Amino acid sequence: MLATTRKDGSPYTSPVWFRWASEAFEIVIALGDVKLRHLERDRRCSLLVFEAVPPFRGVEVRGEATLTHCDVTEIRRSIAGRYLGPEGGKRFAAARKDRPGVLLQLVPVEPRVWDLGDLLPH
Q: Is the domain defined by 2-115 classed in CATH 2.30.110.10?
């Protein structure tokens, strides 16, 4: 889940696909997406990644996003491949080749991390 800030200061949260690359979480945001408008005005955001199955681990990262206007085709393929498998990722990226995007990078600074495994019955 990516949280950005609306013009009126209220939060806007939406599910996103991501990947971990080097020292940052990376997300592709399509041009024209409301999240991109929010981030162009205010780069502060929060990314929440969690497991919906035991042991219910997660991480929240807050900070200022770096936005890079570039050809996101290969990044989009890589990210989609995490969720759809390699072939599905290729098809997903190919279907969106004409839809430019922006690369969001968020470096974790003081992430909040949890693992509920020790709380679960054994």
A: yes
